[in-house]
Structures are given as C-alpha cells and as structure tokens.
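Incident log, entry 3
Record: Ig-like domain-containing protein (229 residues)
Problem: checksum mismatch between cached and fresh output.
Input:
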Amino acid sequence: MPCSSVDMPISSRLLHLVFTLVQFLPQYYGAYDVQITDLKVPPKVQNGSSHVILDCEYTVRSVGDQSGLVVKWFFQNSATPVYQWIYGQKPQDLGVLRGRLLLDYNASNQSTTRHRALYIVNPTTELSGEYKCSVSTFTDEDFMIKTMTVYSLEKSWKMFHVKTEAASLINITCLAQGIYPEPQMILAKGVDEKSLQTMPGLSVQNSLRDGAYDVSASAMLHESDLNIS
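Fresh output:
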C-alpha cells in the first residue's frame, strides 16, 4: 500500500506547539505555584514594645529545585525591599529595618517558609505605615499589603488657666506631649457629656518632635463659667 502524507492544519500545529511549551516550561523552571494565604500585621502596636512580628503565611508547591524562591518585604510603597530572603541563603535586613530585625527568628520549621516573617525589635513610631510582603519563584508571584501603626501615649499632659488683662476673661490651655499618630484635640464645655460644645475661639497647634507630636489647645472663657474664686 503506498504511503501518503497528510499536512497538519496551521491552527493544529500552533495548538500542538503551545501545548508542548506548557508541558516543557514547568520542567525547566521547577513548576512553582505560590499563594499567600494570610498576612498577619497587627494594626496597632505601642511604641517601644519589646518586639512585634509581621508574618507572611504562604504555600509553595514545587517538583524541583527551590532555588527560585524569594521572600521580600517592602515599606511605604518603596521599590527597594527592607527585607529579603533568598531560599538557601541568609536573610537580609535593609533600609529602615537594617539593624532592627532578629534575623535568626524562625516563623516555621519548614525549609521553604522558615524566614518568611519580620521580627522587629523595639518598634518605634517611624515604622508606622504600609507593609507589603512579596513571595516569588521563577514561574509565579503573589503579594499582600497591610498597614501597621506604632502609637505613642502622651508622655505628659496638663491643663491650666491664666487670667488675662481683659476683664473677667480666662485663658484655658490644654497641653499634651509625645503623642503619635497626630492627635485631634478640642476644648469643650457643658454640664455633661451630651451637652458638650466646642469652646468659641479655639486655637490648636501641633508640632512634630522626635517622631511624636506635641499638641496644645487654648480658648477664652468668662470667669463666671469656671466658678473660679
């Protein structure tokens, strides 16, 4: 029986080529699939706490070498990471987190997720902001973003009044120092919480000093409103 050849249509040849590439690429690159399952970033932490942990939980599936796995953390939309861990190497602290991380911290016992987290020692207010965790391999990448505020309670607070030269007028001033984030302060008067009203002529001034805010609010009242003898 004579042999004859049948030409494969162009569309079929293209489909066959694409299918071959899809089969070939995972074998070449290691067949990674990465998915971040949870980003554990506390929304609030007090300034000067002993430490805080930001954890980036993810799953990674592979059928080959893990040399393409990289975990990076970014701060405040910067294109440069503040932390980087390349699988098989030691983690690195960079930028604003240089010297502020416990690099020996192990978030898990699994070799592919051991150094996924940030262990920040003594967090301070300048570390407030947006944190992005990025996990990538040769064939896949995933990321997640959350915000953390490092707050500071006032270091001092006082309220005082001073008589002015104007007849029967009293200057009321409230002063708080060392607060973060920037506070909103008002002075109000009333017989109970429901009847409180902002004092007329209220003046508020805020200033940033050493990573925290000093705020003062002052207003004028008639002496009769204070029952001051």
